[in-house]
Amino acid sequence: MNYQAVLEQVAADIAPHIGAGRPAEYIPALAEVDPASFGMAVADLDGRVHGVGDWERPFSTQSITKVFALALALARGGDELWQRVGREPSGNPFNSLVQLEYENGIPRNPFINAGALVVTDRLQTLTGDASSEVLDFLRAESGNPDLAFDQKVAASEAAHGDRNAALAHFMADYGNMRNPVPTVLEHYFWQCSIAMSCRDLALAGRFLARHGLRADGSRLLTRSEAKQVNAVMLTCGTYDAAGDFAYRVGLPGKSGVGGGIVAVIPGQCALCVWSPGLDARGNSVAGVAALDRFTTLTGLSVF
Ligand code: DON
């Protein structure tokens, strides 16, 4: 597969979508990004990366890190996590509170904010430093030792974090938090603030295309666990748009309000696309269009 030629074709085809939608505004530091940015990268199983547009420019990973936190929590602590968080699409916005009360403080899945807070709490218990665990993993997999928390984004999110605090306190009341809520929130905000490029994220997502094998050849997840993480990405990775994403793109994918989306073609490659304009559900408009175009042009998907 000539990935470079495909990426160039994708970028040309979806150009009219770039700038559509609106960058996230509820985290003020994210609203400052140039809405005309667009980048896309593909990392193959051997770690060769191809890219187009702004593929080497760092952006705020935000909810994309929920995938890596989940993989690490499963790798370090196994299946026990699933007693505290479900695996069903929520059909609700990523930061919604309503379902939590009906469902006794057990979030629907690890990729909505409530579920990710439980995963962060679990990783904090298992490692003593959840956000550094995620950062170290991302540095190792991307081969980029310069990856760092973005202090401005983390501070901005903490200052506007009442909704996440409400989710965490609510779950604590149901007995679904093991660490103090302020500690869990701090690690969650740090984790979300990590800045990475499409190149970095395509490389970091490669372990899911390699059925659980890390860049150094060691195993993070069993083949079965890698399948499970990919399955939860497919069904829950793009929130209340997961059905539409599966219909259009046909791949496990995870979006973030920074405008990035990571997608996986098991046994083939990992992709990352970035463009900051979001649709009403919080997914990048040009990003979804580009992944749609990629799978349509190549015929590569999980279906
Ligand atoms: O907690 C938040 O709201 C953000 N740090 C992350 C949300 C996010 O990226 C959801 N994505 N679409």
Describe the structure.
The chain is an alpha+beta fold. It has a single domain, classed as Beta-lactamase. It is 46% helix and 10% strand. It has helices spanning 3-14, 65-77, 98-102, 113-127, 130-142, 151-159, 162-173, 181-193, 198-204, 206-209, 223-236, 242-248, 285-298, and strands at residues 39-44, 49-53, 59-60, 195-196, 253-255, 260-265, 269-274. A hairpin with a 3-residue loop joins strand 6 and strand 7. The longest helix is centred in the middle third of the chain and has 15 residues, at 113-127. The two termini are 18 Å apart. The structure holds 6-diazenyl-5-OXO-L-norleucine. The site of 6-diazenyl-5-OXO-L-norleucine has 12 residues, from loops.
Short overview:
With 303 residues, the protein is an alpha+beta fold. It has helices spanning 3-14, 65-77, 98-102, 113-127, 130-142, 151-159, 162-173, 181-193, 198-204, 206-209, 223-236, 242-248, 285-298, and strands spanning 39-44, 49-53, 59-60, 195-196, 253-255, 260-265, 269-274. The chain has 13 helices and 7 strands.
Largest sheet properties: 5 strands, antiparallel
CATH homologous superfamily assignment: DD-peptidase/beta-lactamase superfamily
- Label the overall shape: globular
Amount of beta strand? 5-15%
| pLDDT < 50 runs, ≥5 residues | none
Mean pLDDT: 97
Residue share in helix:
40-55%
CATH class: Alpha Beta
The bound ligands are: 6-diazenyl-5-OXO-L-norleucine
CATH architecture designation: 3-Layer(aba) Sandwich
Distance between the termini: 18 Å
Kindly report the spatial arrangement of strands forming the biggest sheet: 2-1-7-6-5
CATH topology: Beta-lactamase
How many structural domains in the coordinates? 1
Number of helices: 13
Q: Based on DSSP secondary structure assignment, what is the total number of beta strands?
A: 7
Q: Spell out the helices and strands N to C.
A: HEEEHHHHHHHEHHHHEEEH
> Could you tell me the radius of gyration in angstroms?
17 Å
